Amino acid sequence: MGKSSLTVDIHALSHWYGKGSTRRQVLQGVDLQISAGEVVLLTGPSGCGKTTLLTLIGALRKVQEGDVDVFGQQLRGAARGQRQRLRRRIGMIFQGHNLLRCLTAEQNVQMGADLLPNLGYRARRDQAREWLRSVGLEDELGKLPHDLSGGQKQRVAIARALAAKPKLLLADEPTAALDSGTGREVVELLKRLAREQSCSVLMVTHDPRILDVADRLVRMEDGRLYQTIS
Amino acid sequence: MIRALWQRRRIPLASLMLIRQPVRLAVALAGISFAGILMFMQLGFRDGLFDASVTVHRLFDADIVLISPRSTSSVSMAGFPSRRLIQAMAAPEVEGITPVHWNLLLWRNPETLGTRSILALGFEPGHPLFTDPTLAAKAKLLTQKGRVLFDEKSRAEFGPVAKWFREGRTVESEIAGKRVRVAGLIGLGASFGADGNLLTSSETFLDLIPNTPSGSIEVGLVRLKPGSDADQVAQHLQSQLPDDVTVLTKQGFIDFEQNYWRTSTSIGFIFTLGAAMGFVVGCVIVYQVLYSDVSDHLPEYATLMAMGYKLNSLLGVVVREGLLLALFGYLPAYAAGQGLYLLVRNATQLPVAMNTVRAVSVFSMILIMCMLSAGLAMRRLVDADPAEIF
Ligand SMILES: Nc1ncnc2c1ncn2[C@@H]1O[C@H](COP(=O)(O)OP(=O)(O)O)[C@@H](O)[C@H]1O
Ligand SMILES: [Mg+2]
């Protein structure tokens, strides 16, 4: 597989937390490749370093050692401005929904669409509505997060992440706060929409019932990554 | 242009963050309004008092005023030789002069018989004194010795002089132990240094203060021919006349008086301090509100950063919150200021009124207050770490 078609290309990535005697290694020489449009599920026990890996790929943290290539850009040594620009092209879905409490569902999604350059206000708003329709929330446009159910909030979060037209979606236990039925629906929706956008997905999950949506499963243990053939 | 801006419009995060927390917003606006009202009142009083210190000064019919260099203010006017005023006539621009005696005298309240100090001006009844044309007719009444014109806007402590006079009674009183009769009423207004005023003829005046050195006056009014440059003539006269006299333009005379109250008393300091207190209180409140607002929204700001929003655009949200608070806190303060000025005017006779300079400066103070607080609150935003929100 040519390197250019890889959305994420990680080689020998190690990461430490803390300083001096409390310094502790959480990632130990991780290698991972994700191709364009691929859906990869990452599982592993709590505390093994999954979230850390996600924040490194998402350009939220400085890379300490190893190579992290996202969209062909080397993240080790990347300046803050470069990481901020890169983040615009990566969609992120968090464990908690992390919606802005003071904004309606529509406005929250538009915060994602507002990141698109060269689009007029109305076009961005129409896109926000379109995304809410695709996650099945066309009737809840004007509601505040407070008035939405957990599943609905997570669907708004998905719409918000996709509204910025990312080519990589990082999701950290997006179903953790949902009951299993709702969780399954949300993940399937996520996968379908990502597919339509040919957007790669890296999703951390503990939920064994959703493993089958993945193209590929990887397992992490104690900071090491093991490829699993699905 | 407008269209382009409209197209680039974003979700109005700042206003939504404020509006969706009505209690916090109300606290912030109340705090800012309170600070604004305090500043309006303190500065209004200060300017009103300074303004009131020159109530009489403004009324003089003069372009140039001669005073003694030893005079420090309206409450301590020294004499100078009236010859100097005659000498000033030599300048071709001078049209007319009026010598004026000026002193604080003790007036006996005809009702309670208590005494109180009143500003007495003595002049030749035929000479122009004030720009007010109705005075000339009343001045004739002073040609008779022992007559005075009483300022009906004097404070009530001088007795019900105006009331009695209008009722047709003969109002007599004592000044410096000598009997005087009120011949008429004039409307001047209490000033800072004098609670009341009265006018009399030079003759009566000298009679009231017999130890005045002959040929000495406290104020010399000089009127110029139309089209003359008062500044230039004043400079010229000052260079021509001996230095036992100071030549001022009318504005210079007004400034001289105000400057005394501004610099030689703590009035300016006290009221400016009061306004500064309002500023500080406002700063603390706005800072508290913005700081807790930013703290509360920290995870949301971090989320926006994770989405790829620039730190600067988030700082911009805080700045806009500050701007909105400034604007909507100022408006009620302005309205309340207007209302309170009206109350104060009615209660104290002080010329306290809204003016553009004060309206703008209080707004600027509020703006500075909000921007300063926003700037400090912003430092909290730097703590928003997008890596910590997963
Ligand atoms: N900011 C941090 N500072 C110090 N230690 C951290 C920090 N974040 C995570 N850790 C530690 O690193 C290890 C890996 O954490 P994390 O990547 O969150 O694991 P996971 O997401 O798989 O549960 C854990 O032991 C955790 O306690
Ligand atoms: Mg985790």
List the defining traits of the structure above.
A: 230 residues; alpha/beta; four-stranded antiparallel sheet; 6 helices; 10 strands; 30% helix; globular; B: 390 residues; alpha+beta; nine-stranded mixed sheet; two-stranded antiparallel ribbon; 14 helices; binds adenosine-5'-diphosphate; binds magnesium ion
Give a short synopsis of this structure.
The complex is a heterodimer of chains A (230) and B (390). Chain A is α/β, with parallel strands linked by helices and 230 residues long. In chain A, 30% of the residues lie in helices and 27% in strands.
Task: Provide an overview of this structure.
- With about 230 residues, chain A is an alpha/beta fold.
- Chain A has a single domain, classed as Rossmann fold.
- Chain A is built from six helices and ten strands.
- In chain A, the strands form two sheets. A six-stranded mixed β-sheet of chain A has the order 6-7-8-3-9-10, with helices on both faces. In chain A, strands 2-1-4-5 form a four-stranded antiparallel β-sheet, covered by helices on one side.
- In chain A, helix 4 (about 120-135) packs across helix 5.
- Chain A is globular.
- In chain A, about 45% of the residues are buried.
- The model of chain A has no long low-confidence stretch (mean pLDDT about 90).
- Chain B is of the alpha+beta class and about 400 residues long.
- Chain B has two domains: about 15-50 and about 265-390, no CATH class; about 70-245, no CATH class.
- Chain B has 14 helices and eleven strands.
- Chain B has helices at about 1-5, 15-20, 20-50, 55-60, 85-90, 135-140, 160-165, 200-210, 230-240, 250-265, 265-295, 300-305, 310-350, 355-380; strands spanning about 65, 80, 95-110, 115-125, 145-150, 170-175, 180-185, 195-200, 215, 220-225, 245-250.
- In chain B, the strands form two sheets. A nine-stranded mixed β-sheet of chain B has the order 6-7-5-8-4-3-10-1-11. Chain B has a two-stranded antiparallel ribbon with strand order 2-9.
- In chain B, a hairpin with a 6-residue loop joins strand 3 and strand 4.
- In chain B, helix 11 packs across helix 12 (about 300-305).
- At the A-B interface, helix 1, helix 2 and helix 3 of A face helix 2 and helix 12 of B.
- Magnesium ion (MG) binds next to helix 1 of chain A.
